[in-house]
Amino acid sequence: MCREFRNFAIIAHVDHGKTTLVDALFKQSGLFRDNQQLETCAMDSNDLERERGITILAKCTSFVWQDVKLNIVDTPGHADFGGEVERILSMVEGVLLLVDASEGPMPQTKFVLAKALALGLKPIVVINKIDKQDARVHEVVDEVFDLFVALCANEEQLDFPILYASGRNGWAVKNPTDERRDLTPLLETVINHIKSPEICEDAPFQMLVTMLDYDQYLGRVLTGKILRGNASVNDSVHALREGIGVAERARLTKLLAFEGLKRTPLEHARCGDIVAIAGLQEATVADTIASTEVITPLKALPIDPPTLSMIFSINNSPLAGHEGKKLTSRVIWDRLRREAEGNISISIKKSDQQDSFEVAGRGELQLGVLIETMRREGFELSISRPQVLYKIDEATGQKLEPMEELYIDLDDEFTGIIIEKITMRKGALLDMRPSGAGKTRLKFLIPTRGLIGYHSEFLTDTRGSGIMNRSFHGYELHKGIIEGRSKGVLVSNVAGNAVAYALFFLEERGTLFINHGDPVYEGIIIGEHNKANELDVNPTKAKQLTNVRAAGKDDNIKLSPPRAISLEQALSYIQDDELVEVTPKSIRLRKKYLDQNTRKKMSRL
């Protein structure tokens, strides 16, 4: 058994190479055979993570190197999943800050580093991907140091070691000119620079829960670092909750250690180690699991509040139940409540409307991932347009709204149109500088609501070449009205199946979202109108049959391919009087009120 531990997290902006570096550490540690196939980004085990190429959930792993057990936490890099990063930092004594050698510090780099520095953690900076053609290593090092200074790092934190690496190729060096062999310099720096956890083995067992997941055999599995004492299987414990006291009493039925990509059973766990436990049915994230003689819970870190909310409600369209099995408000509420238990950056509450719930989170991506997960589990839902969460200034009574720092990298030729579009959305240009190779980096401060629905338009304006990153900045005075969608929609006024003949003549009115044979109902949105108004149409109208033959053959009807809409695009496209109908097989846009006369009546209120 290893006598020494090192607990550290790998933090970085999205796509700067965290998970790829963990893959390389796995290979060097001897955890896998030389001829064993290891999937790329092996830590991204979730289907959505693999499809999107991002880390969504923080994950723990460990391996032994030179008789020292290294517990590693791989964290998400997207700002919407910042809650995952915040809570796991309490488990570690140090962080590896990865920075792309070309892009330099980005919004999430600043966010996660600020959290780490505030906790007093000592970072190790790794300039990753230095083998890229457009790498600018020395400039990036200067930018990282400037970021540390801007975030008020103390002298000890400013004295950070720097390594230069290529996680994909599995090497790290202390100087860019050193021989590039393996990751030994990085592992040596981790052991020498990051302190071992404080060991209080004589105290009663105490562990702060920082992660929660479910196992079909074990039930609820709680993960955290043992801060005091030791734990053994069958020990009697209780869960302590701030403001409540004892939330649950139980026995530890399982103790699990993280080893590579697996969790292995333990009989005994020591102070300072990161472990998972089973046997508790009510305990959740931020609770303290402790021996029965402990009566005071450990203090949990406060989490930044949600900034965006949506209404989740039952699917009440005429097509409800055709594709999904989980339809009722009770099963939807149970699923949302389970999500909120394990994901503390999401909050839920019952809405004023019948059979509907308000779900609040950090951004469209985070809530979109939740919706996508639920639809894959067989749920059918109706989702409202995202709304920002406002605050009221207690001193002045004025309305405050969440603001975002927006960073945009794009080709020089598109800067004019993007600055114009962001300005129309109440964004203020803070910085504009060339980033080399004919590209420019723009920095804006913009209301969160100004970014709702903008991403697809941004990709169109930059011909798919622009990169947009955002990070929560804070609350400021309300910036005024922002213009919404400029075009209206085509709405079906009948039920049935779409007919090619009708769609052919509707194409001149706008862009269609449906194809021949698709089911429609009154109130479903079948396309985007060329003009600003809403237009009711009949997509099921067939050609009238007569006994009079034409002189020549009828022209074959050829339809343009319909515009495919992803879940995120649908959520950003709809207006306040519209909903997204989500099922396991389909994503449809519809009006909140399906009846045409009801819609007209509600529009006058």
Structural summary, described in words:
This protein is an alpha+beta fold and 605 residues long. It has four domains: 4-193, Rossmann fold, CATH 3.40.50.300; 206-291, Translation factors (Elongation Factor Tu (Ef-tu), domain 3, Beta Barrel); 391-477, Alpha-Beta Plaits, CATH 3.30.70.240; 489-579 and 587-603, Beta Barrel (OB fold (Dihydrolipoamide Acetyltransferase, E2P)). 22% of the residues lie in helices and 33% in strands. It contains 14 helices and 35 strands. Strands 18, 19, 20, 21, 22, 28, 30, 32, 33, 34 and 35 form an eleven-stranded mixed β-sheet that branches. Strand 11 and strand 12 form a beta hairpin. The N and C termini lie far apart (71 Å).
Structural class: alpha+beta
Indicate the percent of residues in helices.
10-25%
- Please name the CATH architecture of the largest domain: 3-Layer(aba) Sandwich
Instruction: List the domain count as a whole number.
Output: 4
- Largest sheet entry: 11 strands, mixed
CATH topology of the largest domain: Rossmann fold
Mean pLDDT across residues: 85
Distance between the termini: 71 Å
Count of strand segments: 35
Count of helix runs: 14
Rg result: 27 Å
Strand content: 25-35%
Name the CATH superfamily classification of the largest domain.
P-loop containing nucleotide triphosphate hydrolases
- Name of the CATH class of the largest domain: Alpha Beta
Low-confidence region ranges: 35-45
- Which overall shape is indicated by the principal axes computed on the Cα atoms? globular
